[in-house]
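[stage:ingest] chain + small molecule (2-acetamido-2-deoxy-beta-D-glucopyranose)
[stage:ingest] validated
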Amino acid sequence: MTWNHQLILALPLASGASGYVTKSGAGKLPSLGWNSWNMYGCDIDEAKFLAAAQKMIDTGLKDAGYNYVNIDDCWSLKTGRADDGHIKVNTTRFPNGIDGLAKKIHDMDLKIGIYSSAGTANCAGGYAGSLEHEDTDAADWASWGIDYLKYDNCNVPDNWKDQYVFCHPDHVKTNSNGTCTPETTENLAPEGYDWRTSKSFERFNRMKDALAKQDHEILYSMCIWGTADIFSWGNDTGVNWRMSGDISANWDSVTHIINLNSFYLNSVDFWGHNDADMLEVGNNLSDAEARSHFALWAAMKSPLLIGTDLDKLSQSNIDILKNKHLLAFNQDDTVGPPATPYKWGINPDWTYNSTNPAEFWAGDSKDGVLVLMLNTLGETTSKTAAWSEVPGLDASNHRVTDVWTGDDLGCLGEYKADVASHDTAAILVAKEPCT
Ligand SMILES: *[C@@H]1O[C@H](CO)[C@@H](O)[C@H](O)[C@H]1NC(C)=O
Ligand SMILES: *[C@@H]1O[C@H](CO)[C@@H](O)[C@H](O)[C@H]1NC(C)=O
Ligand SMILES: *[C@@H]1O[C@H](CO)[C@@H](O)[C@H](O)[C@H]1NC(C)=O
Ligand SMILES: *[C@@H]1O[C@H](CO)[C@@H](O)[C@H](O)[C@H]1NC(C)=O
Ligand SMILES: *[C@@H]1O[C@H](CO)[C@@H](O)[C@H](O)[C@H]1NC(C)=O
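[stage:predict] done
[stage:export] tokens:
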């Protein structure tokens, strides 16, 4: 096992942009892995992480690119920070310490992540947060061999609260179209307000700076829920940032997040990704819903963190998570931006609608143009991808590959499909015309 003792550096670019990048290259593309929260909540222990890691290997998920095994909340003692100033690991749950677990995970050629909050306590309550203890905690994690930090946004003390609120439908009252006006929302930031002067910016940048001081590279994932206009400064601070409140294991939550993210995708490119939250594939979604969930998350270039018990995952769901065309799109190292809606479909373009978000999506990649047609309705619907509407394609015939089956569908002038309720038709279209 060789270590990459590299500092995380913010390198100025020729263009003048100065996004956060790492020396190792990790974090240029969306992170892939597994996280304990959606399945286990606080009921975690070393055995569950080792079992998940082993299962990632046995199912081929590791070979498909999933390489982070991430501990979420509740790894420490609920009694808070110890008298010596350090957070103590709950050794009932982790008898070998987190460093012991990290060594085993690294020996499986996987990486390990940990969790804290930019507040006085974590979200589950009682577990110490890292605000004003950033250097101590970052140094402990680095010494344990931690490779990834999910940094949450709970229990912010009054003296660290923002002066203004940012308009985000998950957190403040908005108009029905998702916008805010002084009539709907109190204490909105004035037009042109620079969120880099906010306390949220400072809270999250304190940890960025603490991680940068360590000689073990820790990827920085900001679980900031789309607040504080993270879209305008996230790229300079970490490699990904949550763009919404928490996902839950049902279809309405999936469409709600797709709808929100469709308005925030300008902030996504290499080195900085909107995190649409951890996957619920395997948790209470039908196969059609799991396909749509995964296809959209991959296409939006969200990190893809599996959140289920891999022992119980059906083969069809494993196949969805391993879909080679969608993973290749998500992990494309030549094209940075995500797929975006080119047409809303059931609703007029740019409609804000949580149950029926944009249905027609397209994005460029080195393998061709990925086109998704999501059916948000309750019944099977016929949908057509007309090349003239798809950015990056001209109206001549193009060769089409079915993303789900891998089948070559031939040289087509358009693609028409009957899409089942909540399912998504997904194709890869060659950019060059065919005859
Ligand atoms: C984020 O920063 C990286 C590295 O500087 C840059 O390549 C990328 O284009 C930036 N993203 C956006 C949306 O500007
Ligand atoms: C440590 O973990 C055990 C097992 O889950 C739990 O019962 C106990 O309450 C935890 N201890 C503290 C102090 O959080
Ligand atoms: C959203 O709704 C508000 C209030 O009804 C309206 O004033 C505003 O123009 C709408 N904005 C958009 C982008 O549709
Ligand atoms: C499971 O999904 C159904 C249908 O989307 C939903 O009504 C239910 O609340 C979900 N259960 C959980 C635990 O989220
Ligand atoms: C969302 O769109 C659907 C389909 O057009 C429509 O029936 C529904 O009323 C819309 N929801 C809201 C809250 O406007």
